[in-house]
């Protein structure tokens, strides 16, 4: 049996703008996903996905047929049908990149998450990176051929340290970042527990004039560099607040603090797609109580969630 593991991710700076070449800061999480691969019945992939409590959240067999992977079980739930469809798409990409791995072979594959898959910490990216490790193929190319995206989450999945990530003319550029804020005991993460339709925000961003996008990416890149070297919480807050204002204007969306937490005394920074998943907040135990009183129970300190 072979076992592979990849780290989950949080994007601290550069959401939206990372797609246009902004230098972004991303951090790996202590929580991730593993992939176990054993030999199985020839011509068949038996797939099982476990959640953080070892409960099966998806299971199906796929028949390997000349690069196609047809699910053999009758999947009644719409969610299961969608998962099977995405896996089928991913396995087809795997076959195109390494057909020899599937020739006259079969596998039993089990994935195991350390985190709730609704949290947005990288269920897809950790899977892609694990499959790429197993098949010894380019994880960025596999992502591009399957789910798409900037690829920053693949870079984080491979790293045990914070990174800067930037799309360049020569492809993805990921470098280890010396980001270890001395004030990290004053940082924590809150899960908002809501899904946000970001299509309008993305559409508005895509309609932004090219020269404005270029100016935005340059400003975001500069903020990223300054955040990495910031030595006190006041400077950190000021930089992230400037970042929030720039992105809010670019996507024509109010900041999450204005929308949900206008009376919060500290900083609130959206992470990833605005309005869903996690936010970064500044403060201590008293500030964490603010969110708990409002019904937000999934809260992690920086040291508990970030590697």
TrEMBL record:
GO molecular function, one term: kinase activity
Keywords tagged on the record: Kinase, Transferase
Superkingdom assignment: Bacteria
Protein name: Mevalonate kinase
Source taxonomy: Bacteria, Pseudomonadati, Bacteroidota, Flavobacteriia, Flavobacteriales
């Amino acid at each position: 049996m072979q076992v592979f593991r990849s780290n989950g991710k949080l994007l601290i700076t550069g959401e939206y703008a990372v797609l246009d070449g902004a230098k972004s800061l991303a951090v790996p999480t202590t929580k991730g996903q593993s992939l176990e691969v054993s030999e199985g019945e020839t011509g068949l992939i038996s797939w099982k996905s476990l959640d953080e409590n070892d409960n099966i959240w998806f299971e199906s067999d796929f028949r390997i047929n000349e690069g196609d992977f047809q699910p053999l079980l009758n999947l009644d739930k719409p969610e299961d049908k969608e998962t099977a469809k995405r896996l089928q798409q991913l396995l087809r990409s795997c076959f195109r990149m390494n057909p020899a791995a599937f020739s006259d072979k079969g596998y039993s594959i089990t994935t195991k998450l350390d985190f709730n898959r609704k949290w947005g910490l990288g269920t897809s990216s950790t899977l892609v990176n694990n499959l790429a490790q197993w098949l010894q193929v380019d994880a960025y190319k596999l992502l591009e051929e399957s789910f798409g995206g900037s690829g920053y989450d693949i870079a984080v999945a491979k790293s045990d340290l914070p990174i800067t990530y930037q799309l360049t003319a020569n492809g993805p550029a990921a470098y280890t970042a010396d980001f270890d804020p001395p004030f990290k005991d004053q940082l924590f993460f809150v899960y908002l527990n809501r899904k946000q339709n970001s299509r309008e925000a993305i559409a508005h961003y895509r309609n932004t004039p090219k020269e404005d996008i270029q100016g935005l990416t340059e400003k975001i890149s500069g903020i990223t560099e300054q955040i990495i070297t910031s030595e006190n919480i006041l400077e950190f807050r000021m930089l992230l607040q400037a970042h929030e204002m720039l992105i809010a204007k670019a996507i024509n969306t109010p900041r999450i603090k204005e929308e949900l937490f206008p009376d919060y005394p500290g900083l609130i920074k959206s992470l990833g797609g605005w309005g869903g998943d996690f936010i970064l907040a500044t403060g201590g135990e008293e500030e964490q109580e603010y969110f708990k009183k409002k019904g937000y129970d999934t809260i992690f300190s920086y040291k508990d969630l970030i590697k």
